[in-house]
């Protein structure tokens, strides 16, 4: 096979924006594939090092602490849009001002909340909340503080990734993430074979590895390639806060709603089912969320491309891209069906019967991932245009009913962890209807009223 001919036909052909997107998506997919393999390797190693209960504690704490990622009130996403617009206009000074302001605001917020979290953690009934043994409360409190400190460092330092996204360089961000996962796998292997079971050591190894890689990336690139955008305290401006916050606050409400809908599953399963089911859910999710990762890559790459295309009025390119992404979604649904069918065999080979994952839980997770991808592929366009008010209203409304619906399915229909996941599916249906309708109006320039805000 002439690989060069294939490359020229399918990758190096089309609009310059499309070629750039294809190259970055392919690189990101390759690296994400490595990351997935690492993830599959890390899961059984973790189960052999920690008991299912302690691993469930770590997974649940990870979900809780990830909620704090929204404390930037959407400034990260606002930075991506506003920085991208400033660069497209050739205004480097304004772009640097946005970067400086974003770092100042997010750094200030996380410094304050880290101190508050540290002070409160000692007095919180962690073991009771997580249905763990009371003797584990102090260990969980220490782990929570370590994880939050590492998370705060990671979140502030990861703002540099928004610049890569704005420049449509998703592949580089994925490269940094892959390096992080490789380092963590090395650390966890060393820990597993040289130390006794330690929830604190395990949590510290993972969270601090994920914190220091983006910190190094920021120092490196702001000293070189991104030197003209390097954050400076004197360039932080209140006027930039309003600009970032105006759009960013809507992104903040959307992201908060996503947290309620997606990231509360671990907590709800731990609270209304049991900790062991958290591990079951996470195993099924890790197996079946492969295509969710694909759409995250597409979203991150095409978000910046859509900002540029919409600003230049290139609706035809946006339509073609949307048709291509829809075909990819249909393909992933077909593969997901096959993955569910063969899931018992895969779980047996992967986890060596350490845990048993109900078949219906795999079905529910596959449905949840597919409908989430359906919504996300239309949000690629909506986010790029910045007309996200209707999306915000729908997400917030969906989040309000998500937890009650999930609890209802567990308490009254006795569906266990499957009920929690299906609660998410039911609540995403309005978004699955509204999002494509808005995209159709935006691309045909028939958006009016709430559709155009």
Notes on the protein architecture:
It contains 19 helices and no strands. It has 453 residues and is mostly helical. Helix 2 packs antiparallel against helix 14 (290-311), helix 3 (52-66) crosses helix 13 (275-288) and helix 4 (75-88) packs across helix 11. The longest helix has 34 residues, at 16-49. It is globular, with a radius of gyration of 22 Å.
User: Oligomeric state of the chains?
Assistant: single chain
Largest β sheet strand count, sense and barrel closure: none
**Poorly predicted residue ranges:** none
Q: What is the count of β-strands?
A: 0
Rounded Rg: 22 Å
Shape label: globular
Class by alpha and beta content: mainly alpha
Give the SSE map.
Layout: H1 3-10, H2 16-49, H3 52-66, H4 75-88, H5 92-121, H6 126-129, H7 137-157, H8 160-166, H9 170-194, H10 199-221, H11 238-263, H12 265-272, H13 275-288, H14 290-311, H15 315-341, H16 343-351, H17 359-385, H18 389-411, H19 416-443
Helix pairs in contact: 2-9, 2-14, 3-7, 3-13, 4-5, 4-8, 4-11, 4-14, 5-7, 5-11, 7-10, 9-10, 11-18, 12-13, 12-19, 13-17, 14-15, 14-17, 15-17, 17-19, 18-19
Give structural attributes.
453 residues, globular, mainly alpha
Structure, briefly:
With 453 residues, this protein is mainly alpha-helical. The protein contains 19 helices and no strands.
């Amino acid at each position: 096979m002439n690989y060069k001919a294939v490359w020229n036909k399918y990758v190096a052909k089309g609009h310059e924006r499309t070629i750039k997107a294809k190259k970055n998506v392919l690189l990101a997919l390759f690296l994400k594939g490595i990351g997935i393999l690492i993830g599959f390797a890390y899961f059984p190693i973790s189960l052999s090092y920690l008991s299912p209960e302690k691993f469930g504690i770590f997974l649940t704490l990870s979900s809780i602490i990830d909620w704090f990622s929204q404390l930037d009130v959407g400034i990260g996403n606002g930075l991506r849009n506003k920085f991208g617009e400033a660069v497209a206009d050739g205004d480097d000074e304004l772009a640097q001002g946005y970067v400086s302001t974003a770092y100042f605001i997010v750094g200030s917020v996380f410094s304050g909340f880290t101190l508050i979290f540290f002070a409160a953690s000692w007095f919180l009934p962690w073991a009771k909340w997580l249905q763990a043994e009371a003797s584990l409360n102090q260990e969980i409190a220490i782990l929570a503080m370590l994880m939050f400190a590492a998370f705060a460092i990671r979140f502030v330092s990861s703002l540099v990734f928004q610049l890569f996204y704005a420049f449509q360089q998703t592949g580089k961000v994925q490269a940094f993430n892959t390096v992080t996962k490789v380092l963590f796998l090395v650390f966890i292997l060393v820990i597993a074979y040289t130390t006794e079971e330690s929830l604190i050591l395990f949590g510290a190894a993972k969270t601090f590895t994920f914190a220091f890689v983006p910190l190094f990336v920021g120092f490196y690139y702001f000293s070189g390639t991104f030197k003209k955008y390097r954050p400076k305290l004197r360039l932080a401006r209140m006027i930039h806060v309003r600009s970032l916050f105006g759009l960013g606050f809507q992104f903040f409400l959307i992201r908060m709603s996503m947290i309620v809908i997606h990231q509360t599953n671990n907590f709800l399963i731990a609270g209304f089912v049991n900790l062991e089911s958290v591990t079951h859910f996470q195993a099924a999710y890790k197996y079946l969320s492969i295509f969710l990762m694909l759409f995250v890559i597409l979203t991150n790459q095409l978000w910046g491309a859509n900002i540029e295309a919409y600003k230049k009025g290139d609706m035809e390119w946006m339509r073609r891209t949307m048709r291509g992404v829809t075909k990819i979604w249909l393909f992933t649904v077909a593969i997901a069906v096959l993955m569910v069918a063969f899931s018992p065999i895969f779980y047996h080979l992967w986890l060596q019967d350490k845990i048993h994952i109900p078949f219906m839980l795999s079905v529910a997770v596959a449905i949840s991932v597919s409908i989430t991808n359906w919504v996300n592929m239309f949000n690629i366009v909506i986010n790029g245009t910045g007309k996200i008010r209707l999306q915000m209203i729908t997400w917030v409304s969906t989040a309000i009913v998500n937890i009650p619906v999930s609890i209802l399915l567990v308490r009254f229909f006795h569906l266990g962890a499957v009920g929690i996941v299906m609660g998410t599916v039911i609540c995403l249906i309005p978004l699955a209807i509204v999002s494509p309708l808005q995209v159709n109006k935006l691309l045909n320039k028939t958006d009016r009223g709430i559709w155009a805000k």
